[in-house]
Amino acid sequence: LAILLVLGCSLAFSGADISRKLLASSMRPFPLLFGLAAGMTPFFVVWHLRGGGGLPGAEYWLPGLSTTILNVGANLAFIVAVQRSPLSLTIPMLSLTPVFTTLLAMPMLGEVPEPRQWLGIAVVVAGAFWLNLGSGAITFGNVWRTFVREPGSRLMVAVALLWSLAMPLDKMAVAAAGPSFHGVVLNVGVALALLVLAVFGGRLREVGDLRYRPGLLLFGILVSVAALALQLMAIRVVWVGFVETMKRGLGSFLALIWGRLIFDEPLEPRRFVAVALMAAGVALILL
């Protein structure tokens, strides 16, 4: 069941990444994120009410509200990153989240991987960096120059760090309140925070962008609901570093495919080798 939850979460997040990339071409970051968060909220409200409703104890609110704030910043940065650089060079940088998440989960949750699992995580990250290299030799200098050259890639590393910090907090929040209530708080919190920022920034009229591509927006809402719901259920039963490694390994491969088929981004054989390396790292963790 844990494997199925993580695989379903990974596939749904890939669809969510694609929908956000497509929507970002016709609407600005604020209305896009606001539309997704507001659209997802009713699904989690219904889920929570069908489960009996009710409010959690006081131990929920610190991790619950903290991860909400982190998600506001991470989602805004995500949209900007995929606008600035190709999907195949930005999404794979999120493969750094297994390392960040695992390191943060050790003091926060007491989840310590075995040596073999650490090796698998390191292999996944190595593949992610190779994926972002240019055509030159594989050296630290080339890695750094490519990283500096792609503004979206640099920003996506910051996104990875924010989401990695949010994941252990999500696990604490789900343990205190359940996945449905936490899903409500996450989406309501993100929507309200964006609304406040828009009012004080004089950007409220940007909400009008939501009239563009309503069908695609609905698709984005549905796959995002599935992705978040499956992730919140998965982190209840497995260590958070495993969820992130599986999610980003599969997501990196699918980013190559979607980038080529939908956005006509170049598809180099070297990138498939890098993705295969990440797959091998995932296998080490699962063995």
Written description of the protein model:
It is a single chain. The chain has 287 residues and is mostly helical. The chain is built from twelve helices and no strands. Helix 3 packs across helix 9, helix 5 packs antiparallel against helix 11 and helix 9 crosses helix 10. It is globular, with a radius of gyration of 18 Å.
Layout of helices and strands:
Elements lengths: L1 H22 L5 H22 L10 H24 L2 H4 L6 H13 L5 H17 L8 H10 L1 H27 L1 H22 L13 H21 L5 H24 L5 H18 L1
Q: Using only CA atoms, what is the Rg?
A: 18 Å
Q: What would you call the structural class? A: mainly alpha
What is the mean predicted local confidence, pLDDT? 84
Order of helices and strands: HHHHHHHHHHHH
* Quantity of strands, as a count: 0
Oligomerization: single chain
In summary, what is this structure?
The chain contains 12 helices and no strands.
List keywords for this structure.
single chain; 287 residues; mainly alpha; 12 helices
